[in-house]
Amino acid sequence: SKRLIEREETVDRRLLEMEGKKKEILVEEQRLEKEREKIRGLEIKQREELEKIAGISTAEAKRSLLDTIKEEAKKEAAQIIQKVEREAKETANKKARKIVATAIQRCAVDEVAGTVISTLSLPNDEMKGRVIGREGRNIRTFEALTGVDLIVDDTPETVVISCFDPLRRKIAQISLERLIADTRIHPARIEEIVEKAKKDMEEILHEEGQRAAFDMGISDLPTQQRANSA
Length: 230
Prior knowledge:
There is one protein chain. By secondary structure, the chain is mainly alpha-helical. It folds into 3 domains: 1-38; 56-118; 122-215, K Homology domain, type 1 (Ribosomal Protein S8, Chain: A, domain 1, 2-Layer Sandwich). It contains 6 helices and 3 strands. The chain has helices spanning 2-54, 58-116, 126-132, 137-146, 166-182, 187-215; strands at residues 117-121, 149-151, 158-162. It has a 3-stranded antiparallel β-sheet with strand order 1-3-2. A hairpin with a 6-residue loop joins strand 2 (149-151) and strand 3. The longest helix has 59 residues, at 58-116. It is elongated and about 150 Å long. It holds the Pfam family RNase_Y_N.
């Protein structure tokens, strides 16, 4: 029919148009490929010219650049390492000095404390009141007779005897132990107990002195009258 013939003609015409466009595209692609080849040729030529001017090849230039980067990286890394090590040493030295200073302070405190104080346990906290006495009469009498400081604080069932003189501190310790055991704590009894402790300590010191002289082979020491008090 007429319509069918027209459709066929239309299809044929479009096919011809498509064939023409394909040819045009192919020609354009060929032209572009030639342009690409031309550009690649120019790039190669330019690279060769640059290599001639620089006197080195591209591979050599890359190697040289990489070597330079490596050297710079090594130097930078070495500087960073040195900085970190220096800071670490400074920090370690500061901490070490602090630790040593703290240790010295603690040792000094412990040493001083051990040479100037003695602690004495009490049977109960009620004994603290008896040691102090009414209006502090007992503790004042005790300190005056022994020459020590008697510290009664909040530490449970404990009092502290403080004195740089170890002999006085020992006499005070013996006296206080006897007073606590006796339970009769008043100024007159304190005086009696302290005097007895001083005499006992004198005898102990005399015996220890004789023993030390005997151990050292000294037998001609002059006899001296012992002191009546500490």
